[in-house]
């Protein structure tokens, strides 16, 4: 037992140090390790991570999928493409020509019809546009010929399916047949010598050849225009395996066979005319650089000269009319001023300066009123100091601005007050007659009405057939564009109303094609108008157009800042648990082995 005076330090024993420093380091490290987790803590952590992932998988992901999924209604894509490629419908135009022969025996009239039809078929170079002769039911029989007078009857006129009525009238003082087309109807009177009534044994009588030639001349411009439309749409060559015989040529061959003058006239008319619209807004404007005239009898002038034409155009498009009067409407500062021509004793505008005549910066000309395009008609009354005013090269007082409208320079009689000439304060309906007759002609030109023949009803019937073909091809092309857009953008939404519009478009396209094939052109145009409207509505759907400009990179930029802070801890915790489970599985497997 140690003594009380012993030094405590003498009782400290020296602990021998290990000779290897590595052993000391491992022991100190082992002393710093945390205690092992309890099984309850491991199970709790596993349950927490599993609960988070269960919420993500079974609640969060379905809600995200439901709220962000893109609805794509079913579209008949192959059928839409077939319409665009011309595989479903090839437009044909069988024009029915009604033949009236009240002074012929029925057998003679039937023989004349057969020989004329045979001549037409032999000379028809375009199978999509052909003439079909039909004998009128009221053709006189032998016993009642004496009661028929040589006057045109209203029976058969005005029928939508009858392109032309040919009425045969004998005249004793003729040596050769002649034809006259009525200016107010679609009737062609053919006067012939009684000696040219075809005999039953004749195979090619002169009267048949004459009638066939007149019919071909009447429909030459229409046939060339339709061939041009089909050629531009690439539908004319859809049937490339068909032989280009005399009665089955392609549109390009028809265009090559017409005269250069006619081809230039058709091309010029198509360039100047406006694109088809369901509704056109007509704006009649009176402009004058002074204070007079300040009023005009516009309502009476429109009702007298414009309204009848708009009623005739009603099957093709709808029209609204707006008017305005603008005083002190001066020329543009940059526009060339009129020059006085002593030889014509008038103020003249050069032809190359007509494009700068409209002062678009100061004249209140609205480019569009409502949904449809606006056709502007400008009635300009120059100041007395610059009256009369006309175009220098042609001496005309009017011109057309392609795809925009028309201008008329009105030079009214001047009144003298205190030796100062002045324009009348009011323009009457009679004073507006020349201007509005010109406006009506300009309107027909801007709408694409053919220039020949002289009969306006005949030309309007031609326009109906041209518009029916144009709208059918346009709606078909829109369907093809929509199908290609849908296939190229899988993430674009397709609302149910788009599918309904596509279904309506295809249905009306089928109806239009059927009506064309049967020769019901007004019904075909009505169906084609609906098809074009529905096709445009489906293609320019607002939700679809907006999605076209929303790329996938924008989605990444939206989701990454939201999901990154939450997803990284969950993913790291899941990986750790997977590693732990794998390690435990390997340990149990090692113990068993």
From TrEMBL:
The chain crosses the membrane at residues 48-65, 556-575. Residues 1-10 have a biased composition (Basic and acidic residues). Pfam families: PIG-S. Residues 16-31 have a biased composition (Polar residues). It comes from the Eukaryota. InterPro entries: PtdIno-glycan_biosynth_class_S (IPR019540). The keyword Cytoplasm does not apply. Belongs to the PIGS family. It is found in: Endoplasmic reticulum membrane. One of its GO terms (biological process) is attachment of GPI anchor to protein. Residues 1-38 are annotated as: Disordered. It is a multi-pass membrane protein. Keywords: Endoplasmic reticulum, Glycoprotein, GPI-anchor biosynthesis, Membrane, Transmembrane, Transmembrane helix. Pathway: Glycolipid biosynthesis; glycosylphosphatidylinositol-anchor biosynthesis. This is GPI transamidase component PIG-S, putative. One of its GO terms (cellular component) is GPI-anchor transamidase complex.
